[in-house]
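Contributing new records

If you add data, match the layout below exactly. Sequence lines come first and carry their own label; structure lines follow with theirs. Keep one chain per record. Anything else will be rejected by the validation script.
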Amino acid sequence: MIRASRVGLTHAAFALFAVVLVGRAAQVQLFQTAVWRAKARNQQLAASPLPAPRGMILDEKGAMLVESRQLVRLNVAPREVLGDSKRNPVAAHRRLTALANALVHAAVPAEWVARATDTTRAWVTIPGRYLMSDIAPAVTMHGVHSEPVLERVPPSNDGLRRLVGRADDAGDPVDGLEKALDPILRGEAGHTALLRDAKGTRFDSPTLAADDAKPGHTVVLTVNQTLQDIAEKALSDALRQTGASGGDIVMLDPNSGEVRAMASRRADPLSTSATALTEPYEPGSTLKPFVAARLLDLHRARVDEVMNTYGGVWDYNGRKIEDDHKAPSFSLADVIRFSSNIGIVQFAMRFSPREQYELLRDVGFGSPSGLPYPAEESGRLPTPQRWDKQTPASLAMGYALNVTPLQLANAYAAIANGGELLQPAIVKEIRGVDGTVLYHHERTVVRRVMTTETAQIVRGLLRGVVEGGTGDSAKLATFDVAGKTGTAKRTEHGKYVAGKYTASFVGLFPADNPQLVLLIKLDNPSSTIFGGKAAAPVSKVVLQAAIAARDASLNRTNLAAVPKRVEATVSLPDSVTSADSLVRVTESGSVPYVYRLDSPKRSSAAVAARTIPDVHGFAVRRAVYALHRAGFRVSLAVIDGSGSASGTAPAAGTLAPSGSTVRLMRAP
């Protein structure tokens, strides 16, 4: 047996070692190149993240509402601050003193200044975020490390903050439009490339390029900043003056469906949502015009049709229904004008349950509006299968259902624009980083809910509410306003609470060719519970401010073409001498104002025109009473008061000045 020599074993061991070494070198250089290159890069490079700015949010005119502001977070390595002066006490003290002064200049709390200059600590993260201009002297010092962060600057007023929502310190959305539009507003983060030496000191790389952050898209809202400020101020004043616990104001363009302002306030400090979208309520009498509109569309009622209102108190299925304005009878026009519960319930009895349900469903109640708001409520509209014997009457009076302020305002927009229910909008445009328009809102019709003719008639009825009805506190001196008041009992835990009400008013401005729908809603006002006294005056204040504002999304050309109200004295030419002469002021083909001149010089008494009611078939005495109730004098073309009426001259449905004489004919 041949024994291996000691020298041979040694040579074999070296040879094996050489093979392993070469093999390992080949493995590292040929097969693990990327792995080791990455490790080397990680040791030599220090990547600092660059947060992406969220996209800006602008108002419809381009004014800034929300933006991201770049701030800096500070980290201090006290031992690095000393550098090579560790062995020189004087130089070390000088550096620490300079650092302390720089931090004090940046308004860093004294406690954290002391920690940042404590060399027994290796690393100190100073809380808070600072403007670069404030901490620039500190950032330039050795051992002070800055980290860029972004702060979302919210809108300046409460209503917009509720609508837009919030983003947290990390830039993540919390609620509101910030959350709903996060994929659009969120950008792409980047990073900086720094070199790091053996001691860990970082410095800029002369060759490596940073990966810049990409900001999010810009969102342009339909909100008008001027109108929003007006609404916020008016709502704040209204809550203080009426003692209400909260309220909402919604303004929208009825021709495009675009929301122009949305103000909300609540006594609860924890309430941060846009309650005009999240808190449904029972609308009360503001629902009555839609009952009238559908009846007119179905030809089941006329505006001059008179309904017995039983002196303001009526028993219906064991339930006592009362009117605030008590009268023996009202025409449909006066049912709306004076908000008669008894009258509207009787008119609504002409619907089948399905027809009444479809009426309310068609105008958008019971369904979300579709705005990109995470917590929007759809309200409540029970199907006929869930109704009891009182539900039809309750629905006619605006109870037994819940709607949000936006839903109701959007329904009134259909009356304003000629009968089309539109998809409401809060986002007008989405723009890319380079300004390219990626999305632009287009007017979207959901369905037609009434004919153009009916919408025009209902606007006339709503004009009457402001002219001489429950909404006269909303009347302007120069422009006509149409609208409807509402006073509804409030519920808590499903039960009505005595003494608690919601006062509301929905207005159309101007009454002809409206440019704005304005909804005012006040919760639990203490000064007065009535919508006509609490909410309608707020509408007047808002509209006066909007008219006076330079940039309030009003078409001034169209507004200038609207005939103005004439309430000044009227001078007559000398040729006019009859005390019964009438001066008619024509507006858009109608005769809304008639002046009776008792002397040939001047008069200032404005008299509204009214529709002559249809009294055909009435007993003569009842016909005379109905004409008197409508505001007319009666001339009998009969010898006595017996028999029945065959008609009037002028004919029923004719618009005639209040106080004029109507000739009543008796049937042969």
